[in-house]
Specification:
Elements (H helix, E strand, L loop, with lengths): L1 H19 L3 H17 L1 H8 L5 H11 L5 H12 L6 H15 L2 E8 L5 H15 L2 E8 L6 E6 L2 E6 H14 L4
Parallel strand pairs: 1-2
Antiparallel strand pairs: 1-3, 3-4
Helix pairs in contact: 1-2, 1-6, 2-3, 2-6, 4-5
């Protein structure tokens, strides 16, 4: 919980700085890039969390990987290294994206599918989210082959299960409740 609270504070300060400098669009794009890069590579996240790796190595690696980021985003790396909080970068990028989405009345929806989403399916999922919430949505896409097919949609506390694995589970529960002798 402490890490999440600290990440939220850093994200909020970053948002205020970006707004003051009228560079919100660029910083948002940077945070989305950072979030995507870290979420796609467990090794990268472990690299940031490793106490064995020198902080100068971490900083130079971040600056070389994200050499095209805005100056404000680059300064965030320095502050996090200085404060020994660079391990919070994944949570900070997620918290920043959530804050921006809240400010724009965009809900965050997590969709889990058995195979990667096609653009047509992504559009249908976004339409379903709009139907369920009445708001636009940003999608967090995950792949879980155990679903067999269909999708699992999570929006805050709301969960919509349109997966084949969910249908099998429902059918199994129905058979358990209706025992025939």
């Amino acid at each position: 919980m402490t890490g999440n609270r600290a990440a939220y504070r850093y994200a909020k300060a970053l948002m205020e700085t970006a707004t003051e400098n009228q560079q919100m669009t660029q910083v948002e794009a940077d945070m989305r890039l950072i979030n995507q890069s870290i979420s796609e590579s467990k090794e990268f996240e472990n690299f940031l969390k490793s106490p064995v790796i020198n902080k100068e190595v971490k900083l130079s690696t971040l600056k070389s990987i994200f050499d095209s980021v805005n100056e404000i985003s680059s300064r965030l790396f320095n502050v996090l290294i200085e404060n020994k909080r660079i391990d919070l970068l994944p949570q900070i990028s997620r918290a920043f994206i959530e804050l921006v989405d809240q400010a724009n009345n965009v809900v965050s929806a997590e969709v889990t599918t058995a195979t990667p989403l096609t653009p047509e399916m992504e559009e249908k999922v976004l339409d379903k989210v709009k139907e369920l919430t009445g708001n636009q949505a940003s999608l967090i896409k995950k792949v879980d082959e155990k679903l067999l097919g269909g999708f699992l949609l999570t929006i805050g506390d709301l969960q919509y299960d349109a997966s084949i694995a969910g249908k099998f589970k429902s059918l199994k529960n129905t058979f358990k409740q209706n025992t025939y002798i």
